[in-house]
From TrEMBL:
<dbReference type="InterPro" id="IPR013563">
    <property type="entry name" value="Oligopep_ABC_C"/>
</dbReference>
<dbReference type="Pfam" id="PF08352">
    <property type="entry name" value="oligo_HPY"/>
</dbReference>
<dbReference type="GO" id="GO:0005524">
    <property type="term" value="F:ATP binding"/>
</dbReference>
<dbReference type="GO" id="GO:0055085">
    <property type="term" value="P:transmembrane transport"/>
</dbReference>
<keyword id="KW-0813">Transport</keyword>
<dbReference type="InterPro" id="IPR027417">
    <property type="entry name" value="P-loop_NTPase"/>
</dbReference>
<protein>
    <submittedName>
        <fullName>ABC transporter ATP-binding protein</fullName>
    </submittedName>
</protein>
<dbReference type="Pfam" id="PF00005">
    <property type="entry name" value="ABC_tran"/>
</dbReference>
<comment type="similarity">
    <text>Belongs to the ABC transporter superfamily.</text>
</comment>
<keyword id="KW-1003">Cell membrane</keyword>
<feature type="domain" description="ABC transporter">
    <location>
        <begin position="5"/>
        <end position="255"/>
    </location>
</feature>
<dbReference type="InterPro" id="IPR003439">
    <property type="entry name" value="ABC_transporter-like_ATP-bd"/>
</dbReference>
<dbReference type="GO" id="GO:0005886">
    <property type="term" value="C:plasma membrane"/>
</dbReference>
<keyword id="KW-0067">ATP-binding</keyword>
<keyword id="KW-0547">Nucleotide-binding</keyword>
<dbReference type="InterPro" id="IPR003593">
    <property type="entry name" value="AAA+_ATPase"/>
</dbReference>
<dbReference type="GO" id="GO:0016887">
    <property type="term" value="F:ATP hydrolysis activity"/>
</dbReference>
Length: 323
């Protein structure tokens, strides 16, 4: 099938007093229309910055310093602000952990939604209002006419996030990047939103990149998973491959330490050691200090192995389990 988004060798750096932080370091992946990709990793691994880099939302002292982001064949790296703005909220949308990154606290919901539609297409206010109403219904908001007249502070956290999702859906984008949008919500609401997002994607062919540290979320949602560590993707493949038979020691550690894998009465399992600083990271595997499989060779840059749709950056991967 055709490729919707092709990210190749993407690199984003922050100039800090202590030196250069390589937040996104040679990241590559592809997303097809309608595909749901999970981007997982611990806090600080570069997931959000990868999403922001694709969206052209990196602010100084950060900068995309290399690589390519092809969206429907068009290069987004280096694209001028105006054409980028036209793509955002129209063909590509982003949903943030905090819905107030999307919502304006002083405007009524109808005003915000109508403006979002009319910024990208020449429709009447009445038609834009109908589209806003339909989007609220799609995300499961009851009494949409009443809700359209409300201000963001009149909604609960879960409802506010639903409105932010409805705004992202307004112009039927080809791609939505979701940055932990359900993390702050209670488990029941999180489950409902995940279910609705998956359904919407399946129905409309919208592709999703779902950024999360929570493996249980991607297990039920994503078609493919990419695992990030210290700014790099260390393993990717189908969800079954990566979560069912991890080959990278870091992926294995993440799965083993997931809260759902812990047994009451036994000590909580964790990956030993600390995530490294992204300042002055050398070329070798950044996980080697915490890795049970590390050998001397891991001090040099690990090769990118590709096998049966899976990619892996490791000299000493875990053996595939016998079928
Ligand atoms: N303004 C900044 N100045 C310097 N470094 C930054 C800045 N913003 C981000 N970084 C660096 O980028 C790295 C990646 O951050 P990012 O937010 O992408 O991580 P993440 O995996 O999304 O984590 P989280 O789940 O906590 O959001 C951070 O570890 C930090 O070192």
């Amino acid at each position: 099938m055709s490729t919707l988004l092709q990210v190749k060798g993407l690199r984003t750096e922050f100039a800090t007093r202590g030196g250069t932080v390589k937040a996104v370091d040679d990241v590559s992946f592809e997303v097809r229309p309608g595909q749901i990709m999970g981007l997982v990793g611990e806090s600080g691994s570069g997931k959000s910055m990868t999403g922001y880099s694709i969206m052209g939302l990196i602010d100084p002292p950060g900068k995309v310093v290399g690589g390519s982001v092809l969206f429907k064949g068009r290069e987004l790296v280096g694209l001028a602000p105006e054409p980028l703005r036209q793509l955002r909220g129209n063909r590509i949308a982003m949903i943030f952990q905090d819905p107030m990154m999307t919502l304006n606290p002083v405007l009524r919901i109808d005003t915000q939604m109508i403006e979002t539609v009319r910024a990208h297409r020449p429709v009447s206010k009445g038609d834009a209002r109908d589209m806003a109403r339909a989007a609220l219904v799609r995300v499961g908001i009851a009494a949409p006419d009443e809700r359209l007249l409300a201000y963001p502070h009149q909604f609960s956290g879960g409802m506010r996030q639903r409105v932010a999702i409805a705004i992202a859906l307004l112009n039927a984008p080809d791609l939505i990047i979701c940055d932990e949008p359900t993390t702050a919500l209670d488990v029941t609401i999180q489950g409902q939103i995940l279910y609705e997002m998956q359904k919407l994607c399946r129905e409309s062919g919208t592709a999703l990149i779902w950024i999360t540290h929570d493996l249980s979320v991607v297990a039920g949602l994503a078609d493919t998973v990419s695992v990030m560590y210290a700014g790099r993707i260390v393993e990717s493949g189908t969800t079954e491959q990566v979560l069912g038979q991890p080959r990278h020691h870091y992926t294995h550690g993440l799965i083993a330490s997931a809260p759902s894998r812990n047994v009451r009465g036994e000590p909580l399992r964790q990956i030993a050691g600390m995530t490294p600083s992204l300042l002055n990271l050398g070329p070798g595997c950044a996980f080697r200090a915490r890795c049970g499989g590390a050998t001397d060779i891991c001090a040099v840059a690990p090769p990118l192995l590709a096998e049966g749709g899976r990619t892996l950056r490791c000299f000493n991967p875990l053996a595939p389990e016998a079928p």
